[in-house]
Automatic annotation (TrEMBL):
Gene3D superfamilies: 5'-nuclease (3.40.50.1010). This is Ribonuclease. InterPro entries: PIN-like_dom_sf (IPR029060), PIN_dom (IPR002716), SWT1_Regulator (IPR052626). SMART domains: PINc. Residues 7-136 form the PIN domain.
Length: 169
């Protein structure tokens, strides 16, 4: 796929806490992990809840994927997959600085997505988050934003109905 047709997905922390295998759900498209996401995941490593498991498992997958490589240029996630890049903090873009507090991690993630969209005008940059309010904030500054729905049922008619027909009894 030509580089300009590949999308860039910027992941929010809650996507990873929801699905530690989310890296493999974006096909040939590229993924950006803001450094803020790694900082937030660090807070969820300890504990016995599902989100704690997802935080630990994602970090293990990322560590084994990275090996000794640096993340500046990104690295391939796998065959027929895109690349993953970790983006370091950037100065708050002037379009965001007046409206969003520098204290909230979500706003740092939003800032990185915004910078990425400005730096890649020929590519679709999409913020992926489970947080509907965060999606509204992204849309308010002109970013594309989507819910992470890979685990949702696409066709309810394929689900088990609870009925079984037994013949010749």
């Amino acid at each position: 796929m030509p580089h300009h047709n590949k999308k860039i997905f910027v992941l929010d922390t809650n996507v990873i806490l929801h699905d530690s295998s989310c890296l493999y759900q974006f096909q040939e498209h590229d993924i950006i992990l803001p450094i803020t996401v790694l900082e937030e995941l660090d807070q969820f490593k300890k504990g016995n809840q599902t989100i704690n498991y997802h935080a630990r498992e994602f970090m293990r997958k990322l560590d084994s994927l990275s090996g000794v490589h640096l993340f500046e240029e990104g690295m391939s996630i796998g065959p027929n997959q895109g690349r993953i890049m970790i983006k370091l903090e950037q100065k708050f873009h002037e379009d965001l600085a007046l409206n969003f507090s520098h204290q909230k991690p979500d706003h740092h993630i939003l800032n990185i997505a915004y910078h990425c969209a400005k730096e890649n005008p020929s590519r679709q940059v999409i913020l992926v988050t489970k947080d509907s309010n965060f999606r509204m904030k992204a849309k308010s500054v002109g970013l594309l934003a989507e819910d992470y729905t890979t685990d949702h049922v696409k066709d309810v008619s394929t689900l088990y109905t609870g009925h079984r027909l037994e013949e010749h009894i």
